[in-house]
Design a protein that fits this description.
This protein has about 325 residues and is of the alpha+beta class. It is about 40% helix and about 15% strand. It is built from 10 helices and 11 strands. It starts with a helix and ends in a 13-residue tail after the last strand.
């Protein structure tokens, strides 16, 4: 009997996802189980009693294992996040970090919650009220999606890239450091420089002036290899390649070689910089930092640390 109840709930969740217009790629068992976990709809529990707790990716996977014997490998977390939860949020079914909208994207405390209007709708599933409730919900959903999209946009981090001009980045610690690089580091150590590239978790091409980089001899197609920030110091014709380090490593020997190869055809001299939010975090990576590179720390913005070599903030090889 329990097996039948489990199967019925999964089938019902699948029907709900179809009714709500989720893409075919999300009309599957994984997404059905994610919806059930978000609702804490355990086998045998009626839809009228569904809940909307705050739930993270790992707890969702744990719930599927506990209540449906579905074992997901740890490396499936990204699949659940990117191939189900992103679409739930885009469709307005779920909210991302409603308890703290500015929480870091990579935070282990990141959570999802069924949106209140969707919760009310789902409580009518299986009853005579479902059809009218679904019709009413769908007529209003675009408004809901637009509203939540606006709220997400308002929570983004503004970054001034030129007088009167700014871009916005997804709110997280990494983005705060990118902002500091552009607004604090650049004016001090590369005054008047032009922003060429700034990465962003929500949109890897947060800002990219591809024509400018092409003029300098570099044509990049695989953006995943780009440093976090690229600045062109026009006065000296230098390209400053800056890595923002909050959880990942600095410009070590391997990364130095990767960047040197990526920017091999540059007509501007290359300067490698690692940026840290604090000296405490920097201390964790001291042994990894490559020689002939620079280090900048956001909590001491007027200082620059030079790792050996004959120069201070400058390219080592003429382009």
């Amino acid at each position: 009997m329990t097996t039948n109840k489990k199967a019925r709930h999964i089938k019902a969740a699948h029907q709900v996802l179809i009714s709500l217009g989720l893409p075919r790629a999300q009309q599957n068992e994984r997404s059905s189980l994610c919806l059930l976990a978000l609702l804490n709809l355990t086998p045998g529990k009626p839809w009228s009693k569904v809940e909307n707790p705050l739930v993270g990716i790992t707890p969702i996977m744990d719930w599927a294992r506990e209540h449906h014997n579905k074992e997901y490998a740890p490396n499936t977390r990204e699949t659940v996040r990117r191939q189900t939860m992103h679409q739930f949020c885009d469709a307005g079914i779920a909210l991302y970090n409603p308890d703290q909208p500015d929480r870091s994207v990579n935070s282990p405390k990141a959570v999802y919650q069924v949106e209140p209007a969707a919760l009310s709708l789902l409580r009518t599933f299986g009853t005579p009220a479902w059809h009218d409730a679904l019709t009413d919900y769908l007529t209003k959903r675009e408004t809901l999606i637009a509203r939540y999209a606006k709220e997400r946009q308002q929570n983004r981090i503004p970054v001034k890239i030129a007088p009167g001009k700014e871009i916005t980045l997804v709110p997280r610690e990494h983005s705060e450091l990118i902002r500091a690089i552009i607004e604090e580091f650049a004016p001090r150590f590369a005054p008047g420089s032009a922003l060429v590239y700034a990465g962003d978790t929500g949109d890897k091409w947060g800002y990219f002036d591809a024509p400018l980089l092409a003029e300098l001899g570099v044509d990049v197609e695989v953006h995943g290899k780009m440093p976090d920030v690229v600045l062109h110091y026009n006065a000296k014709n230098w390209l400053l390649l800056v890595e923002s380090v909050t959880s990942h490593g600095p410009v070590d020997g391997k990364r130095h070689a990767e960047l040197a190869k990526l920017f091999d055809n540059s007509t501007a001299g290359l300067v490698y910089v690692t940026a840290f939010p604090s000296r405490t975090i920097m201390s964790r990576y001291l042994r990894e930092i490559a020689w002939e590179t620079e280090v900048w720390v956001a909590d001491a913005p007027s200082h620059l640390i030079h790792f050996n070599g004959a120069r201070f903030l400058g390219p080592y090889h003429a382009p």
